[in-house]
Amino acid sequence: MAGTYGDSTRSVKAVGAEAIPGLPVSSPPVPAAAYHLAPDEDGSLDSYGRSSNPTWRQLESALARLEGAATALVFGSGMAALTSVLRVVAEPGHTLVVPADGYYQVRAYAKEYLAPRGVTVVEARCAEMCDAARDADVVLAETPSNPGLDVVDLHRLAMTCRAQRTLLVVDNTTATPFGQQPLSLGADLVVASATKALAGHHDVLAGYVAGSQPELMERVQRERLHAGPILGAFEAWLVLRSLGSAGLRFERQCQNAAALALMLRSHPAVHTVRYPGLPEDPSHAVASMQMRRFGGIVAAELGDAQAVHDLVRRSALLIASTSFGGIHTSVDRRARWGDHVSDGFARISLGIEDTDDLVDDVRQALGAG
Ligand SMILES: Cc1ncc(COP(=O)(O)O)c(C=O)c1O
Prior knowledge:
Elements: H1 7-14, H2 54-67, E1 71-75, H3 78-89, E2 95-99, H4 104-114, E3 120-124, H5 129-133, E4 138-142, H6 154-163, E5 167-171, H7 176-179, E6 189-193, E7 207-211, H8 214-227, H9 233-243, H10 246-265, E8 272-274, H11 284-290, E9 297-301, H12 305-314, E10 319-320, E11 330-333, E12 345-349, H13 355-366
Parallel strand pairs: 2-3, 2-4, 4-5, 5-6, 10-11
Antiparallel strand pairs: 1-7, 6-7, 8-9, 9-12, 11-12
Helix pairs in contact: 1-2, 1-10, 2-9, 3-4, 3-8, 10-13, 12-13
The structure holds pyridoxal-5'-phosphate.
Pyridoxal-5'-phosphate (PLP) binds at residues 77-79, 82, 103, 142, 146, 171, 173-174, 193, 195, 205, 207.
GO molecular function: cystathionine gamma-lyase activity; pyridoxal phosphate binding
Subunit structure: Homotetramer.
Cofactor: pyridoxal 5'-phosphate
């Protein structure tokens, strides 16, 4: 009963190669720039490495299954996927809504590249997305938002968008397809960075677009073919190899995030904690409706920048690093990158360490407060 499989089973099944006796259980990467051509090549076979690759195809079919999409397309990074989609769907004269409280590079791209080419760029926070969508041609939503972990009501937003033929694109990076499936909630496209929890080892960048509307996906595919922001075959293989354990890792990361959030909310050194899984979190009600898991990131506000540095210095398990979703628990003081947060705001990305070890370690590293 495929519909009732758990996340680890879904991960393992998604990356399974065809069971052909004598062939390896896991497929090797196929690095290829050029392929032998048939005398009358008609585009149905692989011909050139910028247009297709067998390792991409395997990864794309796994990602499509996990997102509940008809197809997926892989890219060289999450930003490559996002910017390719935006170039396709946001045309001159269009109004594009981007998250005001989401990943900052997307706003920068919209302002520095799309706005000068005639796209009106509107920034809206998670809570304002539905209102902003009323006057838009395209909406890009990110939920839970990075780094603030606010949640957008995707069903409501999709209804608003559908009523006026606005295209809805959802960045599913922080939630992952194990946390939520935006397409099933009404999104037209999903974009995501696979660099984070899906690849999960801080060693490869990748991104993808998933969707079920053939004409839309065809346009995104042509953009990839022409602009060429492709994923190398070896990188595609690394992501594929990691994807098989992604369900298992994400389960532990979510468990660690929930336990850490509970400890942090009663620690005197911590001013505020955001985690959509905490019952008192402002996003909890909406998150409970649309998320199957609440994610592996916790946002905590400490007194100041020094308190965040001290936390990492006194800990035996935390590393200071940007990015998230990897096997190590990492802390990123987001003010350093210009996010609109306080100096003591720490985005904590939970790794796969044992829950008790991690919570004990962070408690002692925070000190008495
Ligand atoms: C929500 C979100 N979307 C997209 C990206 C871009 O992904 P990548 O770094 O793989 O280009 C990031 C990167 O941190 C992100 O946090």
